[in-house]
Amino acid sequence: MDAISTTSPVPVPDAGRGAGPGRPKDLGKRAAILDAAKRLFSTHGFDGVSMDQIATDAGVSKLTVYSHFGDKDSLFGAAVRAKCEEQLPPELFLVGLEGNLREQITAIARAFFALVTSEEAVAMHRMMMVPGTGDAHVRELFWQAGPQRVKEGFAAFLRDEVAQGALDIPDIERAASQFLCLLKGELHMQMMCGLCCTLAGEDVEAHIHATVDLFLRAYGTARRQEAGGA
């Protein structure tokens, strides 16, 4: 469920049947293709899904699928990115967008936890972890399009907060990774093992707030000053 892009894919001239020079892509068809890809890839994995199946599920021609995404690798990466951005829109990582630092980090934490515990994300992670499922290339596509992009987005947010003096973080990349791993925690591991399917809202909120508090105790400049630290 790697970091978030702050820009959307740029439409290019439609190469599908009936498209004229400079004609923009049909965004409705693009969305239908992505929805079908997210659903089918999370259910059947990369190798278990064909471009024909995705086209049929989306209600478009295979030529239209290739026109929008080029090849299966590109569509898989786009589907993973789209799923991440559903839960973690780029706006979440804009510094000072809404609320104070704690509120912003809590909002990011809540969205990230909802993403990694979603049915689609859990199914995809399980498939990525099964030996012999897919190849290293597919796993790298997943990593770069999902986990890595999310971490990079959060790291950029932290970098801006450090620049404004709100946080004191010697190693931003490491801190971003630590925070996201802490958020997954035991609850996510239980879901991955099939030990629980639903999580009580109060348990999730307690876990999120405890993780945010721990992170700010470690890197928040105000907390360090109150504690007499450097």
In short:
The protein is mainly alpha-helical. Helix content is 65%, strand content 0%.
What descriptive keywords fit this protein?
single chain; 230 residues; mainly alpha; Tetracycline Repressor, domain 2; 11 helices; 65% helix; globular; disordered N terminus; DNA-binding
Account of the protein in words:
The protein has about 230 residues and is mostly helical. The protein has a domain of about 140 residues: Orthogonal Bundle (Tetracycline Repressor, domain 2). The chain contains 11 helices and no strands. The longest helix has 21 residues. It starts with about 25 loop residues before the first helix and ends with a helix. It holds the Pfam family TetR_C_7. Keywords: DNA-binding. It comes from Lysobacter brunescens. This is TetR/AcrR family transcriptional regulator. InterPro entries: Homeodomain-like_sf, HTH-type_TetR-like_transc_reg, HTH_TetR, Tet_transcr_reg_TetR-rel_C_sf, TetR_C_Proteobacteria.
List the helices and strands and how they pair.
Elements: H1 27-44, H2 51-58, H3 62-69, H4 72-87, H5 101-116, H6 119-129, H7 136-145, H8 147-163, H9 172-192, H10 201-219, H11 221-226
Helix pairs in contact: 1-2, 1-4, 1-6, 2-3, 4-5, 4-7, 5-9, 5-10, 7-8, 8-9, 9-10
